[in-house]
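Q: For a teaching session next week I want to show students how multiple molecules come together into a single three-dimensional assembly. I've collected the sequence lines for a complex. Could you give me the predicted structure tokens for the whole thing so I can convert them for display?
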Amino acid sequence: MEHRYVLTGDTEISCKQQLGELFEDPGFLKIIELITKEVVRFWSVPPEAARGFVLSAIGEPETMACIHDTWSRAKQTGKLGLAKVIIRRRVIDLLRKDARPTHHYSLPGAADAAELERMPGSFDELLQRDPRVQLELQQVIRMVRGALACFAMQGQVQRRQAQLLHRYVLDDVDYSELAVELASPEGALRVRVHKAMLALRKHIRECHPELEELLERDRRLRRPLRAACT
Amino acid sequence: MQSYPCDPEVGEDISGDERTGARSSRGLTALHRLHILLRERRHREVCDELARAELAGEISELHALILQSLLAMLEGSELAGDYLEMAEAVASSPCELAIVAEHKATHDLLQGDPFAAAERCLATLDLIYQTEGLWNHLLVALDRLGELEAIDATLRGFARLDDECVARLVQWLLAEPHLRGIRCRAAFRELLKRRAVG
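A: Of course. Below is the structure for the complete assembly, covering every listed component.
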């Protein structure tokens, strides 16, 4: 839940004065109580937290000035309905921003991810049922392939390392097969793959920071590089 | 739970809501779901579903406010009046205003103020005549006030309504537990005959 009741300098004084004036009005306090009750019901939070949320929704200087002005004018006519609607709408808008989007599926937390590791196929199910995850993964795949191609162009050593990573990660060939293919002991192969991976990571960090950020953000997704080939 | 005359649960009319903001099938579904929950007195679920539907934009602000007012009335909360005040500010058409007036009249009756309810019904009926909910509330208010002549005059005045509206109104009056006295009156029996002929 986001709180936006941040005021500074002259605005703070003015805003606080306006809020203070409004708080002296029992009618205003009543509408704050009404909306607070709705927030308590909806978020199942303590009344104090809900009240803080309500004040956050109306606490921005511009909003507060508008509400203060509308409330003062409405008081003169005795028709406070619209002013109350404006206050409630502000809170509803803020609740709407914080609400879980329709058809949203959360990415698994640490415990869930561990569970997923033990459940063959459930990772694929997660991907299949959330188009957003699929889209992000496709983006990662494209960027990883691009970064690998870029890495291969850095020199002879990097080209060989990129080929090794391509076979191991993207083609999903295991160490035993690669050992036969490259006529190299499996232990030495592991070291070469490890070094190639470190070099690629360094290259990504230096030349493709946006990819690094994306990988960091999606670190909970299981083995994105490995998934890139599936 | 005590049953009130014009009990928001017993007397709540879905058709009234259908006349206004339920513009999409999704909205209608959400509204129907809410009314079913309300009839089944599952208030906690009504609260949750109402908040969810309003945030998801599945029901209009007017309906959200009216339903909140009904919940407040059922809880005996004094906030019902504030919700209705907001609903009145949001209502834009005479039809929406009539629906708000119906609920305000219910609130007046629950507050023990039949005179205010009758005045409100009459003022709104001047603008929109074929609103069976308002006629029903008016008759309840007049019955509470003991205005028998006014009740007869009102029942005779139903001759101006079309057959469909009379049929709905009679159905409503027959179901209203607090209007036994009115159902015994000659003018009401005339209405029944008219419905039977129609």
